[in-house]
Design brief:
- The protein has 266 residues and is of the alpha/beta class.
- It has one domain (2-217): HUPs (Rossmann fold).
- It is 30% helix and 26% strand.
- It contains 8 helices and 13 strands.
- The protein has helices at residues 40-51, 53-56, 70-79, 97-109, 131-139, 192-199, 208-211, 246-265; strands spanning 2-6, 9-11, 18-19, 26-27, 36-38, 58-64, 83-87, 114-120, 143-153, 156-163, 166-172, 176-180, 204-206.
- The strands form 3 sheets. Strands 11-10-9-12-8-1-6-7-13 form a 9-stranded mixed β-sheet, with helices on both faces. A two-stranded antiparallel sheet has the order 2-5.
- Strand 9 and strand 10 form a beta hairpin.
- Helix 3 crosses helix 6 and helix 4 packs across helix 5.
- The longest helix has 20 residues, at 246-265.
Length: 266
């Protein structure tokens, strides 16, 4: 029995230039050297995995990305992860969310008796939120998105998730996939001992010679979507007018309400 946590190293967008070759986004001029960190909601997912570790056993962390992404796995070792695996291969470059999900799903299948898969509900660099649902379909396990709390009750997981009406609770029997929000658990900081232990560990690397995926199903060739361009948008500053006359303000509000009602009726 074990837990899988998925993490991603994301660039700090304000410091990192991009280009869009062949329908994908690529970091330029040093890439991750412009500033990077673990995706915030993934850090919360990792913390949840570590908290549930006593119940479900070992925690294995996967990340997919270029060689520089290995750094995030050392952080995971430092806070208590048991195994860290880096999914890295030139054939994976340019993968969209579906192609990425295929790689991660193939890696998870290589592990035995995975009870729980935890990840952030979305990443700060793309904000698609596709991966959790795509993984649940590929792995054929239930998925709960927007999770705000996870507890164990008997042999089941008691999960609280956001809904249109507020929150809902689910009782789920593992295996399952949970996509967590950033308030589910507060990520712990590594201890000095944890940092020392992390130095003695090295993440394993799995490439496509291990996963044996069809090259046409991953990378640019296996992607169903493409980035057609990127544009910097600067929002104009809005001038705020302070109204001190209550009567004039009330008259403006009533005028606006009447005009809106007339527009709807026309």
């Amino acid at each position: 029995m074990s837990i899988v946590a998925l993490v991603k190293l994301v660039a700090e967008l304000k410091n990192t230039p991009f280009e869009t070759p062949r329908g994908s986004v690529r970091l330029t001029n040093g890439g991750f050297n412009g500033g990077f960190a673990m995706n915030p909601t993934d850090a919360c997912a990792l913390e949840t995995a570590l908290r549930l570790k006593r119940r479900y056993g070992e925690v294995t962390v996967f990340t997919m990305g270029p060689p520089a992404a290995r750094e995030v796995l050392q952080q995971c070792y430092a806070v208590g992860a048991d195994h860290c695996i880096h999914l890295c291969d030139s054939q994976f470059a340019g993968s969209d969310t579906l192609a990425t999900a295929r790689v991660i799903a193939a890696a998870i299948r290589r592990l035995k008796a995975v009870d729980l898969v935890l990840c952030g509900r979305r990443t700060s660099d793309s904000e698609t939120g596709h991966i959790p649902a795509q993984l649940s379909v590929l792995l054929e396990i239930p998925c709960v998105p927007d999770v705000t709390a996870v507890e164990t009750k008997g042999g089941n997981l008691l999960v609280t998730a956001l809904s249109e009406a507020g929150t809902r609770q689910f009782s789920i029997k593992p295996p399952a996939l949970l996509a967590v929000c950033d308030n589910v658990d507060i990520p712990r900081l590594p201890t000095i001992q944890g940092l020392r232990l992390a130095r003695a560990k090295e993440a394993r690397q799995w490439d496509n010679t291990i996963l044996r995926l069809d090259p046409n199903e991953v990378g640019t060739e296996g992607s169903c979507t493409a980035v057609v361009g990127m544009e910097k948008i600067v929002l104009p500053l809005r001038r705020l007018h302070l109204r001190t006359d209550v009567d004039d303000l009330l008259e403006d509000v009533l005028t606006y309400a009447h005009s809106s009602k007339a527009g709807k009726n026309s």
